[in-house]
Amino acid sequence: MKISIVVTQEEHFKFAQEICDTIESSALLRGTGIAKRTPEYIQKKMSNGDAMIALADGKFAGFCYIESWQHGKFVAHSGLIVHPDYRNLGLAKKIKSKVFEYSLKKYPDAKIFGITTGLAVMKINSDLGYKPVPFSELTTDPSFWAGCKTCTNFQILQSKENKMCLCTGMLYDPKDKPKDPPRHPFNEVVLSRLKKIKQALFLNKLLSVLFT
Prior knowledge:
CATH architecture: 3-Layer(aba) Sandwich
Structural class: alpha+beta
Largest sheet: 7 strands, mixed
Strand content: 15-25%
CATH class: Alpha Beta
Number of domains: 1
Shape: globular
Number of strands: 7
Helix content: 25-40%
Distance between the termini: 58 Å
Order of helices and strands: EHHEEEHEHEHHEH
């Protein structure tokens, strides 16, 4: 099976709804919060050349798009998804790596960041040279954080004034050299424990606010 990963064009508009549905169903299956996307928004990213799609014999296999903030000072990769039929093939890492390389060329001076609750994404980011950072090191653009409104954890983010949530912030600064190997090796066990601790702390605080 040959899978190609290419920069999107208008010919890929037909996959927009399927991409949105796959992103949402995957989040529901994992029980994680996620910012919802619309087909129109995905198509806009496609037409601007700010997305990459993986195709297997003409069928949608995976996707990821780029967002820029603060006049290109920050760049984020969003909507990383692999169709269920093509999982467990290492495709997510291949897509992410392609988008990462593409971003470095298109936005050479931008800091690349992301927020995620997924350990798999954290590992991919770490392998690329990202490091965990507090939200204060990420973009302050309110339009980025407004994109979290459809996430089930948005109330937690609001209560912390966009400074903390269940997601982990990760950042790659192109000015930090070298990127290989990462200065902060990924430790899945440690991050998994930290994630559980963070969830427990937030839940206790949320319950205290709701019932006091």
